[in-house]
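Consider the following assembly input.
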Amino acid sequence: MNFSLYGLPETVVHCKKCLMHNQKPFSVNEVKNKTGTDKKGMKINHNGLCAACDYSMSKDMSVDWDSREKKLMEICDKFRRKDGNYDCIVSGSGGKDSVKVSHLLKYKYNMHPLTVTFSPLMYTDVGWRNIQSWISKGGFDNYLFSPNGKVSRILAREAFFNLYHPMQPFKFGIKSFAAKMAKKFKINLVMYGESYVEYGSDKKDNGDAPSYNKEFYINDNPDIYLGGRSIDDLIERYNFSLNDLSCFLPITSDELKNHELTVEHLGWYLKWDPQSAYYYAAENSDFEADDQRTDGTYGKYSGIDDKMESLHYYTHYIKFMIGRCRFDASQEIRNHHIEREEGISLLKRYEGELPIRYLKDCLEYLDITDSEFISRTDQARSPHLWEKNKDGLWIPIQEIEEMKNK
Ligand SMILES: [Zn+2]
């Protein structure tokens, strides 16, 4: 039966402009994410465009970037401090976007950013060199927070088996980390690079605005699931204390009661695209691209700091038929760097590729065998997206026409 395992529409509808389709889940409030939680997919509008293309076309046509930059200057004037304290937080691992955000704020807009890092699960060599360059060549103070490795591994393993999403607890920790550090250092502004609207979020969630809704980083719901298990269950099962898990948990409105916090993204104020962020970071902080393309795609400079990242995109491909190449090529089509046809030929070559380079490291980290990996992967394939052919190979169905004779 052709139903979606994840509560997504049974018929795949493709965007006419980029390569995305309606199986892309909206960024959900992941604390509620447990096995069997339904997701909402990205809408394709009456013109056949996905939410990300719709947003990017409206931006191309109607945004007055000069007036937006003036607004950025006003925000900086409002928050800038001259008393020796930091006045904004930039959270990142030393990737191109966090480098560009912090560098622009400090050296162009005369702010005093504190950069903070919630450590990746497994730094790659190039990722580690890039965070060092960020601090030493870019010129920033940085707090590197490394969560308890034993706990991180157990949570990632639970998340792999329960959600087929090994990075979920980590992504969760990272989401509230900047707000927690802002509170600790009495800083009132957090600045990110791109908004998730760029990737086709539900517009009514945060609209076309520079600020994130508070629900993005605050959560008061006591019914929290990490890696698909309740907090009480994890504590009992692994003999954890609440303290072991607290760095992964969201910040509550009570904790922020006496702390005014504004969380924004620079991509609203300044035209932002990954390629120009890469060139900027390379020029100003000696940011290095990888020496080979990333598994599952053709790029060399996005999301290269964590060995787990390629497996993360692979699981996304299995669940939603949207892998890393589809993300990259779609965004480059929207940013006018490539044509749709070129995107399709990239998809044919790289989409859904097994992330072989770091797979052994990932499976060791998660403490799972090859056969456990394969069997959990097959369980995660939704019957409306996959079928086995006569040779026993899994074939994506409901793909765009051009992909059928791959
Ligand atoms: Zn699109």
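The chain has a mean pLDDT of 92. Ask yourself how this observation constrains the way the partners meet.
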